[in-house]
Write a structure and sequence with these properties.
mainly beta, 1 helix, 8% helix, 55% strand
Length: 181
């Protein structure tokens, strides 16, 4: 129900933006921070997005993935929440503000979404779906029919799963480059 509402909202908002929606594919590195990064190293970040590439305020719908490899050890209490490979997959809606102008165009974004978290050899007794917020900055470099992009952001999820008791929110920083069609 919530996901269908977000999709309808995106379609209506995109139509109101009077710009053709564009599909984007971004890949890069995800860097764990704080307690999430104590036993994990940088990993892969990937995002598939759809939204207009117009100046001003526009919506963007993303499917985002981050995988952070753990150090392979098991903690002393037998759980693996703080040490195993950490994977988050999220469906998120962003408000994107692009500066006006031609050539290289900077933009900022902020939004929220739902994330499914999994940790190798561990299971969360409270469930695997969490709400989260994200924000970032990027640039679009327009070419003929596409635009190259570079983006840095921060993703914070309202859980301590993966970071250890009371170390929330969990936070990672994706650095990506990509193309918008």
């Amino acid at each position: 129900m919530r996901i269908s509402f977000l999709v309808v909202l995106l379609v209506v908002w995109a139509a109101a933006a009077d710009a053709q929606p564009r599909v984007g594919v971004d890949v890069g590195v995800a860097v764990p921070t704080g307690a999430l990064g104590e036993h994990r190293s940088a990993g892969v970040a990937a995002t598939v997005s759809i939204g207009p590439r117009a100046s001003g305020l526009t919506p963007r719908l993303d499917v985002a993935l981050a995988h952070l490899p753990g150090d392979g050890t098991v903690s002393e209490n037998g759980t693996n929440s703080r040490r195993g490979d950490y994977t988050s997959a999220g469906l998120r809606l962003s408000a994107v503000y692009r500066a006006r102008g031609r050539g290289v165009v900077p933009y900022g974004l902020i939004g929220g979404g739902l994330y499914v978290l999994t940790i190798e050899r561990d299971r969360n007794p409270y469930g695997d779906v969490f709400g989260g917020l994200h924000a970032g900055l990027g640039i679009d470099v327009p070419l003929e029919r596409v635009a190259l992009t570079a983006e840095i952001g921060a993703v914070a999820m309202a859980t301590d799963y993966g970071a250890g008791a009371f170390n929330f929110p969990t936070l990672h920083v994706p650095l990506t480059v990509g193309v918008r069609f």
